[in-house]
Amino acid sequence: MHTPVTIIGAGLGGLTLARVLHVHGIPVTVYEADPSPSARTQGGMLDIHDYNGQLALEAAGLMDGFHSIVLEGRQAMRVIDLDGSVQFEEADDGTGGRPEVMRGALRRILLDSLAAGTVRWGHKVSSTRALGEGRHEVTFADGTTVVAGLLVGADGAWSRWDRVPGVTLLGDAAHLAAPNGEGANLAMLDGAELGQALAAHPDDIEAAIDEYEQAMFPRSTEVATFEGAGVHRIDSDDNTAQGLINMFTEEGR
């Protein structure tokens, strides 16, 4: 690809996109507001699902690293009724589809997989300006600027820019999710699929963006609808231990 890719935000989604682009030999730079990788904690444990997050890691060629940080035994489950009786129990035999990792450890694997200098720390975006022909000028808080051939907003809700040529979004910037871990998995899959689309259309950015967004937006809507239904049942007056068991055994476990 002749046009450099500029990613705003070094979260899991932005870093996954950068890694997939790196795998395909596509130049990319990530700009992050935090002054360093250790500037703030990266949250606790995170389930990485076999139907989205793990697919992203496969596309990034990082499954070995992922397996090395999986926390053993974290997929075991027990449901106990009000009288203390065990209604459901499932051991972690290593075959479950939602292994847990520490979010910070996963981010470190992604960071370490990139070429030195790919992530530019301490760059908080203050404004963007369209230059025509899909190019955009990004101005940072320190007054420096960069011109992007493709600008990708990956900084959560802070990256809610309008959809114009040469710009696209991923993760919470495109589809704000509940803070239950699904959003991180979706962001990673968004990043992987956008990277693959750009690799498949190296001379047509808009075709790549269209292909990516046609899959991304419907998928995020489906996940949000499913999550809303599940949470509603859990919080309802009719909720029972058996209802919880049914949710886990019938809805994807």
Could you characterize what this model shows?
With 253 residues, this protein is of the alpha/beta class. The chain has one domain (5-69, 97-250): 3-Layer(bba) Sandwich (FAD/NAD(P)-binding domain). 38% of the residues lie in helices and 21% in strands. The chain has helices at residues 12-23, 53-59, 63-69, 103-112, 182-200, 205-235, 241-250; strands spanning 5-8, 28-32, 45-47, 77-80, 86-90, 100-102, 119-121, 125-132, 135-140, 145-148, 150-153, 167-169. The strands form four sheets. A five-stranded parallel sheet has the order 7-2-1-11-12, with helices on one face. It has a three-stranded antiparallel sheet with strand order 8-9-10, with no helix packed on it. The protein has a two-stranded antiparallel ribbon with strand order 3-6. Helix 1 (12-23) runs parallel beside helix 4.
* Helix and strand composition category: alpha/beta
Beta-strand percent range? 15-25%
Give the ordered list of helices and strands.
EHEEHHEEEHEEEEEEHHH
Q: Calculate Rg over CA atoms.
A: 20 Å
Summed over residues and divided by their number, the pLDDT gives a mean of 85
Total domain count: 1
Task: Describe the protein's topology.
Elements: E1 5-8, H1 12-23, E2 28-32, E3 45-47, H2 53-59, H3 63-69, E4 77-80, E5 86-90, E6 100-102, H4 103-112, E7 119-121, E8 125-132, E9 135-140, E10 145-148, E11 150-153, E12 167-169, H5 182-200, H6 205-235, H7 241-250
Parallel strand pairs: 1-2, 1-11, 2-7, 11-12
Antiparallel strand pairs: 3-6, 4-5, 8-9, 9-10
Helix pairs in contact: 1-4, 1-5, 2-5, 5-6
